[in-house]
Each structure stands twice: as C-alpha cells, then as structure tokens.
Write a structure and sequence with these properties.
- This protein has helices spanning 14-39, 61-73, 76-80, 86-123, 133-155, 159-165, 167-174, 200-208; strands at 45-47, 56-58.
- By secondary structure, it is mainly α.
- Helix 6 (159-165) crosses helix 7 (167-174).
- 1% of the residues are buried.
Length: 212
C-alpha cells in the first residue's frame, strides 16, 4: 500500500505541528545514522527546534566538531558545490516543473494531432473547419513524419516486417493523400453542340420526302 502524499504546508494546529516535529526529527536522525553506517561516511546533524531547550545533536558533540572541521578544511568550491538555500532549492524545483510541463504539453499536442489525423482520414476531409494555420501545419508535419517513417522502413529492406507488422499503418498512410480541404461543387456538363447546316444532298433528299 502506497503512502499518502503529504501536503508540504505549514501546520496551523500547534499540537499537530509538535507531534509531526518529534516524529520527523526521530526519522531524520535515524536516516543519518543509516547512511553513515551503510555507506561508511562521516555525517552529523544539528536540529534547532522551538520545543527543545537545547539543539538536538547527532552523534555527539565531538562527532559534530570532527565533521565540521573536515568540512571547513575542504576548498571553498567543494563546500558550496552542492549547497542550497531555500531560494535556490525552490528555483531548482520550479525549473524541473517547467521542463516537465513543456514535455507534457508536447506529448499532449502530439496525441491530439494524431487523433485529428485519423479522424480526417476516416472522413476523407478536414473534420474541423475552425482550425488555425498552426494546427494545419502541425497536421501536415504529422502526416509527413509518418510517411517518412514508412519510407525508411521500406528502404531498409525488411519487407516481411513491413508487410505483417505495418500493413494497417501503410494502408492508413496511403490514404493520407486523399485528405484535402473541401472542394467546390463540380461544374455542370457542357451544352450539346448546335446543329450544323445541312449539305446540298441532304436538302435535296428532304425536298423529295416533302420535309421542306
């Protein structure tokens, strides 16, 4: 069973906040102990809290002094290379969220364009008359991309896989050339040609028959 996602916000209730503080403090010190034991590294923890008269120290005062002395002896670049404050941490989170949002938007746009492409193929026409020029360009790029992909598979010489695995896709893409904008109604057929004047022999024959 997965844990319920905790909302990262300040706890207004004082009792609940104190309970959460004590619980998380014990968990944090336990994690520091585990990472120091499992990975064989020097670690320490100093926790200042409003509910304790003295700060919580792990593993001991001498252990904390040893780690801090080793840290201060390192070059300044190594000290600040992975150090973040609240502002830089939030900037990193915002940057990651923006990248994720852009990637998700691109995936959704690709899925929408693919669905629109197959709707147009089924209708043999553009199914949305209110499409912008950008949407039409995206649809055209999607069609060209699929056509090029099929062409590369055919050129690779793997005709058996193309025949069995991509038969339906080839049929769909072959019908893409039939997708076009609505056309004007067909022109009416031309009128029949006017009768020409009869020749002299025809005039004589018509006179004999009493038609003239």
């Amino acid at each position: 069973m997965t844990r319920k996602k905790v909302k990262l916000a300040f706890i207004e209730n004082n009792t609940a906040r104190k309970t959460t503080y004590n619980k998380r403090k014990k968990g944090l010190l336990k994690k520091v102990d585990e990472i120091s034991t499992l990975c064989g590294i020097d670690a320490c923890a100093i926790i200042y809290g409003p509910y304790d008269p003295q700060p919580e120290i792990w593993p001991s005062s001498s252990g904390v002094e040893k780690v801090l002395t080793k840290f201060k002896a390192a070059p300044e670049f190594d000290q600040s290379r992975r150090m973040v404050d609240q502002e830089s941490f939030l900037k990193q989170r915002i940057g990651k969220a923006e990248k994720h949002l852009k990637r998700q938007w691109a995936e959704n746009k690709e899925k929408e364009t693919t669905m629109l492409m197959f709707q147009c193929l089924n209708a043999r026409n553009v199914v949305q008359s209110d499409m912008s020029m950008g949407d039409l360009n995206d649809l055209s790029c999607m069609i060209d991309h699929n056509l090029r992909k099929i062409g590369r598979r055919i050129d690779s010489g793997d005709s058996e896989n193309v025949t069995h695995q991509n038969q339906s896709e080839s049929q769909v893409l072959a019908a893409q050339s039939q997708v076009q904008l609505p056309m004007a109604p067909p022109l009416p057929p031309p009128p029949p040609p006017l009768p020409t004047a009869p020749e002299n022999d025809e005039i004589e024959m018509m006179s004999r028959l009493g038609w003239l």
